[in-house]
Model the fold of this input.
Amino acid sequence: MATTPRADEAATTIVVFGATGDLAHRKLYPALGSLAGSGQLPQGVSVLGVARTEMDDAEFARTVIESVAKATGEDEERGAAAFAKCEVHFRYLPGSAADPETFHALADALRGGPDGPHPIGNCLFYLSTAPSLFEAIADGLGAVGLAHEDDGFRRFVVEKPFGHDLESALDLTRHLCRWFEERQIFRIDHYLAKETVQNILALRFTNTIFEPLWNRRYVDHVQITVAEDLGVEHRGAFYEHAGALRDIVQNHVMQVLALTMMEPPTWMDAEHIRDEKVKLLRAIDIPSPDEAVDKSVRGQYTAGVIDAAPVVGYREEEAVAADSETETYVALRLNVDNWRWAGVPVYVRTGKRLPARVTEITMRFHGVPFLAFEGTLSRDLRPNMLVLRIQPHEGISLKFGAKVPGEAFRVQSVSMDFGYEQAIHATGMDGYTRLLFDAMSGDPTLFIRTDEVEQAWRIVDPYLQAWAEPGGGLHFYKAGTWGPHIAELLLERSGDAWREPDL
Ligand code: BG6
Done:
């Protein structure tokens, strides 16, 4: 993972498709501002916005600076000065990404005018558009020769969703690969840019005490929870066609799971890490549609209470059908069929309008073979657990038994907690800043490779098929609760339960 700008990034143009859109304003421009502010943006970068709205270069520059100020809470002069110091040049090209003409105009603009050709230099094509435009943009760029690396790199940066199911994902890949090689494609999963997700690797592979326990011999089961208290906000129209499985499980959950359970990479670089992730994903059992019904629970929130305030049910949300069958909650029981993990169930769940925003991984260890403290003396004792908290209050907790002071030999579970904020006083780059920086530096470690995307779709596809059949039941849960009660039944062994996160 690169940390300093490289000289060959000096003449980079970042072409932003969807330049007036929400994603660009909320994530990309603040990331650009942050790189400029910290002096990590190479001198002389050009930002060329493409969108349908008519505006000129100066107006475009102003909107970028406004977005940076909004995100940082600082005044606009400060952002403008940081961009000026790095000699960032803003340009804007009005045009639709669905119109081939736009790409001719883009090629002219990059070559310095129709009387060119001037060298283009390095180009990062950043797609901040609806996924339905990904293929048209790849085609448009390819058709005018902008995918060729004649006089600099050409990188295609694209954000999930990468397809809607396995078939569409394969189609998208075939399409992109007509013009771009795999090494030119940078697929963003913003979870990989979270420091604590990267810290899974540090925990596992820079310490000696955890890895010996990290297998079927000691681990009873694994739980991964990605909970959100937010509802679908203003994204009802998008979410209706996505649902929790596509929106979170296919990508974020699979990535976290792969990093948690993969084998040690030979070397911590992009290809070795991604090789191990894909090997792990390939070991996940792919159920038949019938088995998929038994191994999953899908739910949808109804009206309830979050943070003491009433909230509406999913079907009452803006742009959501009154009889919508889209799931806002999903829980799965997965099996990883390999030497290390055979027989260790992996329970994953995600949902919107759950009681809190929390992402965590729990390794639940086997109980002791014989408990010599039977009866009331050990009534509060639970099996050992290691909880990796990804967000918020990033940290690690180890749960173990300890004696309660007093004459009786009473044992209870206690927690040994490590919190990042308290222990490590360093601030890294925020997620999007990191991703933009790495894409410019050509480091693909935090981006998803084609084979990972496809394998993740292979895993979730049977659930999508099963749920499309009559009887692929939807269970309702009240906003502000931990999801449908029936999800408890997914846990295989009596006495097992979903861990209630420490809030
Ligand atoms: C996005 C999903 O990928 O991740 C959203 O599309 C979700 O629906 C978001 O809210 C969650 O991200 P984070 O970083 O807040 O956990």
